Amino acid sequence: MGPEPQTGALIDWLLATDREVLLPILYADNDLGWGIAPGAADLVPGRLGLSEPPTDLGSDAIATADLVICPAVAVARDGVRLGRGGGSYDRALGRIRPGTPVWAAVYDAEIVDALPSDAHDHPVDAALTPTRLIPLQRSGDD
Fold first, then answer.
1. Does residue 139 carry a pLDDT above 80?
2. What is the dotted CATH code of the domain comprising 8-135?
3. Phi (first) and psi of residue 69, to 5 degrees
């Protein structure tokens, strides 16, 4: 598993356009809390050396999001997302409001024709690559 696509420029742009951005905080049980992005210079070291916001709003804060961009190892054209295996985003995506769009941040080469899925997997609506946004046909959508 290689590095994830960088999202710093997108976060900076969103902050510059007065959008509120929530960033994940990794808990010891691999669940995710959320904090408001203060700007890259104000992030603090978190678990596993990850940079995190200094204030934790809790795991349910993701329910306030209008859009969720999550990491993925790969994403299929039918919206199946393959994570890193810890279940962090599967749990977090279970807390979003119905209808909230979910985009998977991947590289173009990580978009594949098909992936296996389980009942707990939350489909994604689009693949966000460093160069484009690709709408996906979510499983079960007509």
1. no
2. 3.40.50.10420
3. -110, 120
